Amino acid sequence: MTSCKKETVVNETSVTAQDSTNASIDSSKVNLKGSFAGTTFSKEYVRAIGQFAYVWGWPIVNSFNRRVALTSVSEPGLRGGVLPNAPVGHIAMLTDYIAPDQRFVACPNQDVTYGMGYGSLDDMPVVMQVPDFGDRFWVYAAWDARTDEFSKLGKQYGTKPGFYLMVGPNWKGKVPAGISGVFRSSTELAAFCPRVFLNDTDEDRKAIQPVLNQIMAYPLTEFDGKMKTIDWKKVPHFPVPGKSSDEEIQWVPAATFFDQLPDIMKKVPPLKGEESIYATINAVLDAAKKDPSLMAVLKEVALTADKEMIQPLKQWKYNGVPAGNGWFSDKNNADFGVDYFVRTATSKSNMYENVYTETKYIYTDFDSSGKELDGNNSYKVTFKAGQEPPVEGFWSLTLYNDHHFFHPNPLKRYSLGTKNKNLKRNADGSLTLYAGAKSPGADKESNWLPAPKGHFSVYLRSYGPKQSVIDGTWMPPIVEKY
User: Fold this and answer.
1) pLDDT tens profile 293-310
2) What CA–CA distance (Å, rounded) separates 413 from 448?
3) Could you give the CA distance from residue 419 to residue 140 in angstroms, rounded to a whole number?
4) Residue 204 vs residues 33, 82, 195, 249, 453: alpha-carbon distances, Å
5) Do 481 and 383 contact (CB within 8 A), yes or no?
6) Contact at 8 Å (CB) between 265 and 57?
7) pLDDT (tens digit per residue) in 212-255
8) Which of 398, 400, 325 is nearest to 368 (CA)?
9) Closest CA to 273 of 27, 52, 58
10) Pairwise CA distance, residues 100 & 125, whole Å
11) Which Pfam families match (predicted)?
12) Which of 14, 75, 296, 432 has the most CB atoms less than 10 A away?
């Protein structure tokens, strides 16, 4: 892990190519221009390339559509009073946990106060303010259009209070005095999300407000070297567009996917090794633009692929590799590179994860016998004494419904972990957490996560994970019926 301690240190994102010393083909001599204009493609070929393009491009189109929707406000504020929204080049902050009824982003946690915003970094570099958080755990994530993280800002990096600049791949301006570090995105689009730990107590809700009011982002043109403040409790609320739903907002409409993709691909340069992918997809898109019958094939492919290929990716078994005891976990979250499958699965199931060295995510839909979790049953998860997730920051166990949102319940309880100061331990020092629609009993209720009467999933977070969590030598405990 690196630290942003030097003045104007530039963090460049890059892709390391595999050693090609023994390759039989010189990639520098491969024709990457795509098919010649006028080539006649069969519908079967267009269908095959279209399927790949849909899975490959789904997270990227997702990112661009979120930026359009979540920056269409006049000033930083809260959409529907529940989600931070701000114009391009700015962020907005919550002052408490995220509301359980929001449907803007799946799988949020109730351990932190969130901020959110988007940038267009070639035209408008963005300054991120970092106040003095003291001992409080915090991390600022910044992602490119592919949902790969490019920043390293947080307590675990030893980041000092100050001002940090986010720039795009083509920005060539001068970094002014007073900027402590520079981070370069691989795309002009960037998404920003500060996260600041909050204990579930009235005292901490009050104590956190002054530091939250110093978390801001704004265009470089507004930078004057002085720490700005805003009272995030007094920002305007904006209406929520569209109809309410139990599911996440549909950020990628299949019917218009291939109408959007050509322009979006022009804004996202290929990674090293992706040039041939771009040439192949663009050749088909160009042909479809001139031939309505081929465009009809692509639109049919998008509708079918969304149902048959994208929707199933909400299942946690597709989000990484086995992590032991029936759980699954990414090993490359927010650093996907050319792992298109997991990148898209993450974008579908829980968009905008922190990089795995900042936060380890472990999740499951199954109990220890391999059966799907069902709230009509009762379950327990027991951490042996001293065997809770080893972290520098905090950990939590969250329960989600079928759509990866919180289950409404009278206790208004959706997760348990470091933030909870009233958890009861067993006589031997171990900690047992319970999940199910039925209370485990008054003596255990402080450790209970209420579940719906039907399918649910559980999700274990470790912020500031120690090495044993990162490398998998620490394993999550089993989820067992009782």
Assistant:
1) 999 999 999 999 999 999
2) 9
3) 19
4) 58, 20, 15, 32, 33
5) no
6) yes
7) 999 999 999 999 999 999 999 999 999 987 667 899 999 999 99
8) 325
9) 27
10) 33
11) DUF1214 (PF06742), DUF1254 (PF06863)
12) 432
d(Cα 101, Cα 246) in Å, to the nearest integer?
A: 9
**Spatial separation of the C-alpha atoms in residues 82 and 252, rounded to whole Å:** 22
Single-letter code of the amino acid located at 90: H
Q: Is 308 within 8 Å of 373 (Cβ atoms)?
A: no
> Which has the closest alpha carbon to 55: 353, 370, 277?
277
Q: Can you tell me the distance from the alpha carbon of 13 to that of 128, in angstroms, rounded to the nearest whole number?
A: 18
User: Which residues on neighbouring strands pair with residue 366, listed in sequence order?
Assistant: 372
What count of residues does the chain have?
A: 482
- Determine the longest span between alpha carbons in the chain, in angstroms: 76
C-alpha 49/C-alpha 38 separation (Å) is: 17
Distance in angstroms (rounded) separating the CA atoms of residues 260 and 41: 21
Contact 75, 86 (CB under 8 A): yes
Contact partners, residue 315, CB within 8 Å, separation at least 6 = 349, 365
For the CA atoms of 290, 296, 301, 303, the dihedral, rounded to the nearest 10 degrees, stands at: 130
What is this structure's pTM? Answer: 0.92
* All structural domains of the chain: 1-12+41-309 (no CATH), 316-481 (2.60.120.600)
Q: Which residue has the tokens 């942003």?
A: 4
Instruction: Determine how β-strand 431-436 pairs with β-strand 448-450.
Output: parallel
Is-contact 349 319, C-beta < 8 A? yes
438 vs 328: CA distance, rounded Å: 26
Instruction: Give the three-class secondary structure for 465.
Output: strand
Banded model confidence at residue 8, pLDDT cuts 50, 70, 90: very low
> DSSP label at 334?
T
CB 350 within 8 A of CB 464: no
Listed in sequence order, the DSSP H helices in 134-255 are: 202-212
Q: Average the pLDDT over 131-150 and give the result.
A: 98
Q: Using CA atoms, how far apart are residues 206 and 79, in angstroms rounded to an integer?
A: 23
